[in-house]
């Protein structure tokens, strides 16, 4: 069997789907995308084509290593997202050829169902209590929200109080009937991370995500020394070679590689295994589409240390498109009592509605995240 064609489709709300065709008619789908840089990743996929056309899609490991190493420069958000989506599609093809779901090709199920969580509160956390009540009716009991709006490198007690008050209200309203993670979203610099973690400790959030920016990873062990709140990060780390430094330094209790940013299934299964060796849990990042989510679930179902899975149903980014819009087998993604079952169809288990994808790609969005500014006019971390 040989790879003969790659086609990318940028679709609402802000995703990109990749179709890889073979000379025997078997097709694989992937989701190579960096939110806000879809066109850059699309070009990176096109640049990688020369390593793929005419090659045997079964040789995923060789194709992965070639895409990673052969171009001399490696790593980073754009290239690793392109490799990720191609890798996903190659696993989809392999499973379809062998008639097995990807998790079977990775050693089989380690669990019967996977715990899911839902975003609440949007970019500027608001109406959280109501949103939690609504999602509870849908079976969710685990949530994530942004902890703050813009925050200066050194900011006021009033801003700290505003962040803490929101969390206090949630605990007041729900007690321990729910769990929630707080995403600092890279908006909090190290000086304020120490203050916020101390003030939030009493409310026991399930985790604090990106307590500082990934480029400040050396703070993870220092912050972990001062708090019992589990610290999480990973959506802006793109390979084993970045995660290894974080595992060695310690400080993270949860790693959150994104299956569409960190090299795909081939790479993230390795990251998950490295994490387990350090007693670190896995909670793949996934505010994206159905192929990304399916890829996450296959890694979750073979990773003992997988504890939580993000999914984008109803997420504040999904304007103009929803998680299952391009999926025919929607029922396979049903969340029951806050859990997802394994995707048992061959490959990734996503039956892509290609006609819908092609139609939607005619109005490809150019989603960009907003540019926030502080009161002094300087750019703020969004
Ligand atoms: O935890 C999450 O889902 C992420 O922080 C998410 O908010 C961002 O990755 C966003 O998708 C970037 O455009
Ligand atoms: Mg995040």
Automatic annotation (TrEMBL):
Residues 125-230 form the Mandelate racemase/muconate lactonizing enzyme C-terminal domain. Mg(2+) binds at residues 183, 209, 235. The record marks 310 as: Transition state stabilizer. InterPro entries: DgoD-like, Enolase-like_C_sf, Enolase-like_N, Enolase_C-like, Galactonate_deHydtase, Mandel_Rmase/mucon_lact_enz_CS, Mandelate_racemase_C, Mandelate_racemase_N_dom. Keywords: Lyase, Magnesium, Metal-binding. It comes from the Bacteria. It catalyses: D-galactonate = 2-dehydro-3-deoxy-D-galactonate + H2O. The active site is at 185 (proton donor/acceptor), 285 (proton donor/acceptor). Its cofactor is Mg(2+). One of its GO terms (molecular function) is magnesium ion binding. Gene3D superfamilies: Enolase-like C-terminal domain, Enolase-like, N-terminal domain. One of its GO terms (biological process) is D-galactonate catabolic process. Binds 1 Mg(2+) ion per subunit. Catalyzes the dehydration of D-galactonate to 2-keto-3-deoxy-D-galactonate. Belongs to the mandelate racemase/muconate lactonizing enzyme family. GalD subfamily. Reaction proceeds via an anti dehydration. This is D-galactonate dehydratase.
